[in-house]
Design brief:
- With 364 residues, the chain is of the alpha+beta class.
- The protein folds into three domains: 119 residues, Ubiquitin-like (UB roll), CATH 3.10.20; 52 residues, Orthogonal Bundle (Serum Albumin, Chain A, Domain 1); 87 residues, Ubiquitin-like (UB roll) (Roll).
- 29% of the residues lie in helices and 13% in strands.
- The protein is built from twelve helices and nine strands.
- It has a five-stranded mixed beta sheet with strand order 6-5-9-7-8, with helices on one face. Strands 2-1-4-3 form a four-stranded mixed beta sheet, with helices on one face.
- A hairpin with a 5-residue loop joins strand 5 and strand 6.
- Helix 9 packs antiparallel against helix 10.
- The longest helix has 20 residues.
- It is globular and about 70 Å long.
- The relative contact order is 0.15.
């Protein structure tokens, strides 16, 4: 992972996605998480088979809980529910909560829900469950708490929330939503169908029109004072030709959010290149820079170790203090990863780089 996140990419012709970009996009797309979904025992219809009310699945990370309902219903109708009693059940009334009673955010990607669950579980003092155990959910068949859900957790409401996230990501990247709003309705519907059917090619056939590429040049920047170099290029974008205005390093900002354990969600503008207030102006903005700027208590500056006084000056190597880690798409992300690269290759289907923060144990 680290080798690709910081490697130099060969320029590609405009409109052509290089192999490595497609590889990581597909790996992100094909990621799955284990779920155990159990129907609330108090809501099972009469004459249901109570020995089979638990449904197991490997759910796509890029999918959403409301999109699992049809396959769950088929399983329950075939094996669990009494046919007569199940006729009164309405899918639009179904909703999910965690086994600990926490209401799940149905408009979050399933992979994001799982990563937050994994981190929250790791913080519990007496955790005996394996790290990759299924996330256990309770399925309720009636009385959704609309005051907390805000909207009915249906597939249509999920689609509207998803399209809203795509448009917001589009605006953050380019300063407008022209790329999204100029798509034909067939394309806008097609990008959602790619999510529903979990079809990589159908999704990226449209998504490539609004997502930056990784293969070509960098935004023109002035060299920092005292630097003799006449041009600064990020290591992942060796400019050998004209600047590509659609490239990852030419967006205005990378759509990214930080999810703290049991805490708030942080969002700010994330320029792909460090700007004037940094001594490294013009170089790629990395995950380390991003996290250090927003949560410095968890990602502090390296400290120089104390050394005895010697007859000759010895420059000590700064020592990094590792208090926390970043989880992106279930992967421990190297802090040297470039934000522009993450935004192009590791973003979710909604266009956002979701960075989940875990706190390292005192035992390690």
């Amino acid at each position: 992972m680290a080798a690709y996140a910081t490697t130099r990419h060969v320029n590609s012709p405009a409109g052509v996605t290089d192999y490595q970009t497609t590889l990581f996009r597909r790996l992100t797309w094909e990621g799955t998480v284990p779920l155990e979904i159990r129907v609330d025992s108090k809501e099972l219809p009469a004459n249901s088979n109570r020995g089979l009310e638990c449904y197991y699945t490997q759910a796509p990370r890029v999918s959403y809980l409301p999109l699992l309902v049809p396959q769950i219903r088929k399983f329950l109708m075939d094996l669990v529910f009494d046919e007569a009693a199940s006729k009164d059940l309405k899918e639009e009334d179904w909703w999910f909560e965690h086994e600990n009673g926490t209401l799940l955010k149905w408009h979050w990607p399933i992979g994001l829900l799982y990563d937050n669950h994994t981190i929250a579980t790791s913080l519990q003092p007496s955790t005996s469950a394996p790290v990759f155990a299924p996330m256990r959910l309770i399925l309720h068949l009636a009385s959704p708490p609309m005051d907390k859900l805000l909207l009915q957790p249906s597939a249509e409401a999920c689609k509207q929330a998803f399209m809203g996230q795509l448009k917001e990501a589009d605006f953050i990247r380019w300063g407008s939503t022209k790329r999204m709003t100029s798509l034909r309705k067939a394309d806008q519907d097609g990008i959602w169908e790619g999510i529903k059917e979990h079809n990589f090619d159908d999704y990226w056939r449209v998504a490539s029109k609004v997502t930056p590429s990784t293969g070509t040049g960098s935004r023109a920047m002035s060299p920092p004072p005292g630097n003799s170099s006449s041009h600064i290029s990020p290591p992942s974008a060796d400019a050998q030709g004209p600047s590509d205005r659609e490239g990852a390093h030419n967006v205005r900002s990378v759509p990214a959010r930080i999810y703290l354990p049991d805490g708030p969600v942080l969002q700010d503008l994330v320029p792909p290149l460090l700007e004037d207030d940094s001594p490294l102006v013009g170089t790629p903005n990395t995950l380390e820079h991003f996290l250090r700027a927003h949560i410095p208590l968890l990602f502090p500056e390296p400290t120089a170790p104390s050394t005895p006084t010697l007859s000759r000056v010895v420059q000590p190597t700064p020592r990094k203090i590792e208090l926390a880690y970043a989880l992106i798409q279930g992967i421990l992300a190297p802090l040297e990863s470039e934000m522009a690269w993450l935004g192009t290759c590791m973003a979710g289907a909604d266009g956002w780089v979701n960075v989940c923060i875990g706190v390292k144990s005192n035992k390690t």
